[in-house]
Protein: Cytochrome P450 hydroxylase
Amino acid sequence: MHDQPPSACPHSAPAPPKPPAPDLFTWEFATNPYPAYAWLREHAPVHRTTLPSGVEAWLVTRYADARQALADQRLSKNPAHHDEPAHAKGKTGIPGERKAELMTHLLNIDPPDHTRLRRLVSKAFTPRRVAEFAPRVQELTDQLIDGFKDKGEADLIHEFAFPLPIYAICDLLGVPREDQDDFRDWAGMMIRHGGGPRGGVARSVKKMRGYLAELIHRKREDPGEDLISGLIRASDHGEHLTENEAAAMAFILLFAGFETTVNLIGNGTYALLTHPEQRAQLQQSLAAGDTGLLETGLEELLRYDGPVELATWRFATEPLRIGGQDIAAGDPVLVVLAAADRDPERFERPDLLDLTRRDNQHLGYGHGVHYCLGAPLARLEGQTALATLLRRLPDLQLAVDPEELRWRGGLIMRGLRTLPVTFTPPGR
Ligand code: HEM
Structure:
C-alpha cells in the first residue's frame, strides 16, 4: 500500500514525478501536520530533515518502523551519544537541565541505569496510588468548572486544561497548596514559551528545580504520604534514590505529566466539538451510566490527535538500518508518533475519529522500556475532565471557527494555544 507499484510494462508511460516534499515546521504544518505525514509515510518514511533549531535528525513515520525504533536498544536516550555537541547547547534536551546532576532522569538514560531508576519510582508511583487519587481529580475538575460556569463562555485551555494537571501533579507530589500557584506561574512560562526563546523557560525550570530540591530535603526530615516521600522511601535491594535522583525524578514527573495532559484535554475536547455525532454518542452513553465508550474513546482521541507528536530524542549508538534506510552512529532519530498512529497499514480508515475503535494499539504513550509511566494518571485526568465537561456543560460549543484557532509550533508536543467555547450556564 505504501510504495508506488513498479511499472508493469516497459512501454507504458513513465511513472509520474514524485510530488515535491511538503514544508515541515511552518504554521500551516503546525495547524494540520497530517497531510505532510501522509506524504512522508508514502515517499520518505525515514526522512532526514533540518529542524528549526538547526539540528539534523531522521524522522520515522511508519507504524511498524516507529514501534521497532522505540524498542531498539541501539537507539540511546543519552544525549552523550549525539555526534555533534548540540545537547551541550541545549538544543536536544529539556531547557535548563544541562547540569550533569539534573540529567539523570528516565528520559535521558538507558538500561541498566534506567531499569534501576524506573523500578524504584514504580514502587512509589503505583496504579493503586493513582486510583486512590480519583476523588481529588474529580474535586479539582469540578472546582475549575465552578470557576467559569456562570459566564457562559471560557477559554478551556487557560481556565481548565492548563490548571487541572498542574494542581493534580502538585497534590500528588506533596507540594503544599499555598505554593501551588507559583508552580502554575512557572509552568505557564514553560508552556507559553516552549517553542520560542528559551531564556524565560530556563529560568522557570531553574526555579522549579530549586523548589523541588528544597522540598525533598524537607520531606526527608518530615515525610508524609505523598509521592515525594514515597520516592525518598522507595528502596530496591537496599538501594535508595539519592537526593539528586529524587529531585530529577520529581521534575521529570512534572515535566512529562503536565503539558501532555493539558494537550490531551485540549485536543480531545476540540476533536469532540468538531465531530458532533461522536460527541453525541459519548454523551448518551455517559448519561446511561456507561463508561465503556469513554475508555475506548480516550484511547482513540490519543491516536487521532494525541499530545505527543514526536517521541523524545534518540541517538544511534552504532550504524543501523530503519525501514531500509542507513543511519550513521551518532545520528539523532525522532519517532513521529502522530504519523505512525495514522498509518493505513496499521489502522483501518486512520483519518476517521471512531470512539468505538477497539483494535487500537496506538503509540501515543510510546512503546518499550520508556513507555509512559504516567499513563494511568493521564487516563484518569483525561476521562474525568472530558466526562465532567460533557455532563455539566452539555451544550458546549466552539466559540470561533476552527480555522481561527492557533496551534503551538513546538517540536515534540501538539496542542492548541486557546480553545474558546460557549455554553448555557447550568441552572438557566
Ligand atoms: C496524555 C498524557 C500523556 C501522554 C500522551 C504521554 C506520553 C508519553 C510518551 C510518548 C512517552 C515516551 C517518550 C519516549 O519514549 O520518547 C512518555 C514517557 C513518560 N511519561 Fe508520559 N505521557 C502523558 C502523561 C504523563 C503523566 C501524567 C506523567 C506523570 C505524572 C507522565 C510521565 C512520564 C514519564 C516519567 C515518562 C518517562 C518514562 C521512561 O523513560 O521510563 N506522562 N509519556
